[in-house]
Amino acid sequence: MSETIQHNKYVELKYRVVDEKSGNVLTAVDFPLGYVHGVNDVLSSQVMAELEGKQVGETISVSLDCNALFGPRDESLVVTDYIENVPEEYREIGTSIVMENDEGKTRTFVVTRMDDKTLTVDGNNPLCGRQVVFELEILTVRDATEAEIAAGGKIESRPELKGVKPVPL
């Protein structure tokens, strides 16, 4: 009998996020995403609840209102400036820029537009304002080791590098 997803089970899955309105795939993760169920909330609580009790080989679809997850879109987080005011290493669409406010809180902005004179960054989550469907395929379900439970996921061993002396941590 196949094991079911429950607390302290190590789970691997792959998923994609589809815009409910357009049907476009917004994100696809084809390599296994591994976590310990109930220990590491790597996905939204709604998705985690839907995974509970599922088995290897099953696929599920979960509709999510991203405004509930990330809040509504905030246009004050969209900033356009003259390109000469932006360091060259940030002058590429898709570049992430971590900024800090006066209180020391950080937010990640993404370069979304650029022309000869201006550059625009957006601090909203890219899924704000969307209804999406998470489509998940369950690849692995097994008992998690004590180390995996402590870490919240799979413990990867260091790669063996021939001829390279390891550096002590």
Explain what you see.
The chain is mainly β. It has two domains: 85 residues, Chitinase A, domain 3; 49 residues, Thrombin, subunit H (Beta Barrel). It contains three helices and eight strands. A hairpin with a 5-residue loop joins strand 1 and strand 2. The model has no long low-confidence stretch (mean pLDDT 89).
Estimated structural class: mainly beta
**Which stretches are low in confidence, meaning pLDDT under 50 for 5 or more residues running?**
none
In this structure, how is the largest beta sheet organized? 4 strands, antiparallel
The geometry reads as: globular
Number of domains: 2
Beta-strand level of the residues, as a percent range?
A: 35-45%
Discrete helix count: 3
CATH architecture of the largest domain: Roll
Q: What is the share of helical residues?
A: 10-25%
The ordered string of helix (H) and strand (E) elements is: EEHEHEEEEEH
Note the gap between the termini: 42 Å
Global mean pLDDT: 89
Radius of gyration, rounded?
Answer: 20 Å
CATH-defined topology of the largest domain: Chitinase A, domain 3
- β-strand number: 8
Strand order of the largest sheet: 2-1-8-3
The first-level CATH class of the largest domain is given as Alpha Beta
What's the arrangement of secondary structure elements?
Blueprint (H helix, E strand, L loop, with lengths): L8 E11 L5 E12 L8 H7 L7 E7 H5 L7 E5 L13 E5 L5 E9 L3 E5 L8 E13 L2 H6 L18
Antiparallel strand pairs: 1-2, 1-8, 3-8, 4-7, 5-6, 6-7
